[in-house]
Amino acid sequence: MARSIADEGYPLTVWARRAASVEPFAGVAAVASTPAEVGESSDVVGICVVADADVEDVLLRADGVLAGMAAGGVVVIHSTIRPETCQRLATEAAKQEISIIDAPVSGGGDAAAQRRLLVMVGGEDDAVARCRPVLEAFARPVIHLGPLGSGQVAKLVNNFVFTAQVGLALETFSFAQRLGMDRAAAAQVLAHGSGGTRANAILAASGFDTTGLRQAEPLLRKDVGIVLDVARAAGVPEPAALVELARNTLSALGNGPKAQVSPNA
Question: Recorded GO terms, molecular function (predicted)?
């Protein structure tokens, strides 16, 4: 994402908690020593960290982004976090006349390299419009879904459904193999048939190696837990079939007892 922004000619400043993460940007971007320096040098700051606490730390700590950013700036939260965290951070940022939009992404590293990430955006129209040219440096499409937090809800639903589909894919290929089908041949059929899913394609492309999916299990567990918390807070009944499929997926990937998909999972 950062490389695409630089390639489009935008002046870029980068910071990361691990020095190795910014080494590839030598000669391409300015490297900051603190998040505050990123804020000071930028009109738009994109945040790409893992969880709610990480976003809060990067923005609010003594040398965080908000400590350096001037009034009129926009912070773009690309992390997948709770919508209410975005809203709480926006309240803090507004004290300095800084806007926040949420813009989580989907598609993975290959899509990022090809500039075709899906970006799901929530926020005020003016702030989104200001950031759209930067987002379009790495995204196809950019979808503005509504007010702040809308992008997070969309991403959480997406990851919830994907988690359920991973379990279906694992069972599908196991079932096909027991029927005497070659799994690669079954994957070709599904890729061109009505039963195909993104999870099927990812599993087949890996040679049916679940290592990558197992590494992603903590993130999937986090996102499933958050989306169910959001549903409970909104008084929306849980979709029982999806919950069961997601629970089975997390159990299979975690190599442990049947996962409990619950608040703070």
Answer: NAD binding; NADP binding; oxidoreductase activity
pTM tops 0.85: yes
**Looking at the predicted structure, is the pLDDT value of residue 265 above 90?**
no
Q: How far apart are CA 197 and CA 165, in angstroms?
A: 7
Do 42 and 59 lie in a common domain?
Answer: yes
Is 265 within a domain?
A: no
For residue 255, the model assigns a pLDDT of: 67
Q: Which long-range contacts (CB under 8 A, 24 or more apart) does 230-237 make?
A: 230/82, 230/83, 230/153, 230/156, 232/263
Distance CA(104)–CA(77), nearest Å, equals 7
The angle subtended at Cα 77 by Cα 89 and Cα 234, nearest 5°, is 65
**pLDDT value of residue 259:** 37
Residues 38 and 118 in one domain: yes
Q: Clarify whether residues 130 and 30 are in a common domain.
A: yes
Domain count, the chain: 2
Task: Choose, from 95, 155, 222, 258, the residue flagged as catalytic.
Answer: 155
Write the CA distances from 209 to 27, 29, 107, 186, integer angstroms. 37, 36, 19, 16
Which is nearest to 57 in space by CA: 83, 89, 22? 89
Instruction: State which of 148, 181, 205 marks the end of a domain.
Output: 148
The span from the CA of 128 to the CA of 100, in Å, is: 9
Domain boundaries, position 100: 2-148
The reply to whether 155 belongs to the active site is: yes
